[in-house]
Prior knowledge:
Blueprint lengths: L13 H13 L7 H7 L2 H20 L3 H13 L1 H14 L16 H14 L9 E6 L5 E6 L2 H21 L2 H4 L17
Antiparallel strand pairs: 1-2
Helix pairs in contact: 1-2, 3-4, 3-5, 3-7, 4-7, 5-6, 5-7
Amino acid sequence: MNITNPTSTEYRSLKALRLHLAVLLMAGKIGRRADDVWKDLPWKRFRGQVFRLQRSIFKAQKERSKAKVKRLQQLLLRSRAAQALAVKQVTQLNTGRKSPGVDGKTALSTRERLVLCQRLNKHWYHWKHQQLRRVNIPKPNGKTRGLGIPTMADRAWQALLKLAAESRLRSNCRRKELRLPTRTLYCGRTNTDFQ
């Protein structure tokens, strides 16, 4: 397969070629500027794939098919789209992304993000947590409460698990029990997620 020729008949569109190049870079088989690859990832397609899997999990849970739910959740956890979205959520979108864990990292470079995606893909099933950084936060009554801050890698793994678990949990609860806003859809998506 010739990956340098974007007009090859093996690819239906330029998006398919970019997706293939991104997967090769994440696997460490080609070298390219990490900034360009991270920006060129098809994020809209990734969100669509994850949403479709979440919707399938939701429907399977409604049908009370435990084996199908488990299989679909494992498929979502192995999905490179879900792994990339989890890393993006933790490293770029979360408001607490600047609080360091025990490793002291507050921001990841784009190459480190791609390496973290590759690490999630390799170790998603048996993930080893690092220790939490303990911080005491003052309360209004003068006392303090402890807070444990995980590392960026652990947060990405937790975000990946959240993507797989939230649609199953939402199928078991009613809207009033969760106190969801009215604009929330059944799979944990809102209208602003698709913009």
